[in-house]
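This section describes the prediction task in plain terms. A model, or a person checking by hand, is given the sequence of a single protein chain and must write out its three-dimensional structure as a string of tokens. No templates, partner chains or ligands are provided. The sample shown here is typical of the held-out split.
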Amino acid sequence: MMSSSSTTGCGPGLALGTCNRCLILLRYAMNLAVRWEIPGITANPTKDVPLFEDLAGKKERFLTEEEAQKLYGNGVPE
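The expected answer:
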């Protein structure tokens, strides 16, 4: 699998979803620092950093006949 880090800015060998999770964690930590009024932190610098669009991590899936029967049964939810 080829890395797309050269075009996205994501770290070498890291999946886009991994980079998104790291950014989300950093964003959460910075939000806590602002909320807890940590000296020197007045705003979250990660606020406007967009997440990477990770189309490779999304999979389209269809229900099997058996799953559809379990879900819909006779049309009345259980």
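For orientation: The helical segments are 5-8, 16-35, 65-72.
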